[in-house]
Amino acid sequence: xxxxxxxKSGVSRxxxxxxxxxxxxxxxxxxxxxxxxxxxxxxxxxLGRLPKASAERVKEVVEDDWGDxxxxxxxxxxxxxxxxxxxxxxxxxxGTRTDEVIVGDxxxxxLYKVLSACLDARPDxxxxxxxxxxxxxxxxxxxxxxxxxxxxxxxxxxxxxNGVSTAQVEAALDSTVAVIVLSHVDYRSxxxxxxxxxxxxxxxxxxLMVWDLCHSVGVVxxxxxxxxxxxxxxxxxKYLNGGPGAPAFTYxxxxxxxxxxxxxxxxxxxxxxxxxxxxxxAVAGMKAWLTGTPSILSLAAVEPGVAMIAEAGVPTIRAKxxxxxxxxxxxxxxxxxxxxxxxxxxxxxxxRGSHVTVSRPDARDLTLRLIDKGVVPDFRQPDGVRLGFAxxxxxxVDVYDGLRALADLxx
Length: 411
Prior knowledge:
By secondary structure, the protein is of the alpha/beta class. It has helices spanning 13-21, 52-69, 72-78, 81-94, 107-121, 136-149, 166-172, 195-204, 296-312, 314-336, 363-372, 396-410, and strands spanning 40-41, 101-103, 127-131, 152-156, 177-183, 208-212, 231-234, 249-252, 342-343, 355-359, 375-376, 378-380, 384-388.
């Protein structure tokens, strides 16, 4: 096929430009480092763009806090960063109360801690429930814990584009299940699960519920308190724009904090840490979920991006996210479906997060060729081109031009 012309689509580029002109979030793009305006970046769900304020904040911490104030910065400026940023993430993005979220560790370590605590709290139950297609880290942590503790894993079969259903979870529950761990938004399909209903099902069976929020925090409304969630983890380097390897956050519901004890004891979570005393006694609240010395430079880079999302408001961000993914699905129908692509994400906007995956057997090759053309998506096994939309930086014309480029390569 030859190059697709704009009149072959039900949506014109001029309409995409008009949507950008009317976008209430358009001004936020200027708050980020955009080194190449010609680059179409559709991978903000893997690594978010760099906020200008984050670069300035890290420079301040390096030059002023570390360079000038030196060790005095621990007591004057740094000790409360894990709690302060955790409270901001929790109250602004997760529907929590203060002292229910802490920032530190990687997502992997945070998940290990939370699942270990849940298993310790249900010692007479020997089963963990997880989806077979969940993100690798989540599966590997569950496999490790099951091996070390001689537990059973009850795998939920992969469910395709629509994700795990409440009925599927209910069918897997019995009196042996200690904990269920699921991703709120599927990293491949973008399927958005019913957090409230699944959590309620877990509790009805006497199990604890843990959610991975990596692909939903910052772009999907979340209310952990209203939904009764016991514990959750999530990363800060995707939609929160915290930077590569930025620390993760951990949520533990206040009513569960006395019951769930984190397993990796370190001096940062001990009462009166500077007493250097023998014997471990955990400090009260979410500081008990810290272990070793936090990475201050990484923490400093997280806060500005989170503050920006809090200012913009998740409902407004969600509205644009929905519009961006709707545009992508419309263009898929017009341009990509006739070229043999499949839609590997839910068709209903209410059932998906902020990315759209399209599938074709040559997806890996197409992804590499697309990057060479100045459009950066992501490839996901076995045959998916994942198109991630970060509402504070992704424009409607980026979606239009990105899918147009993919159609041109595939035609």
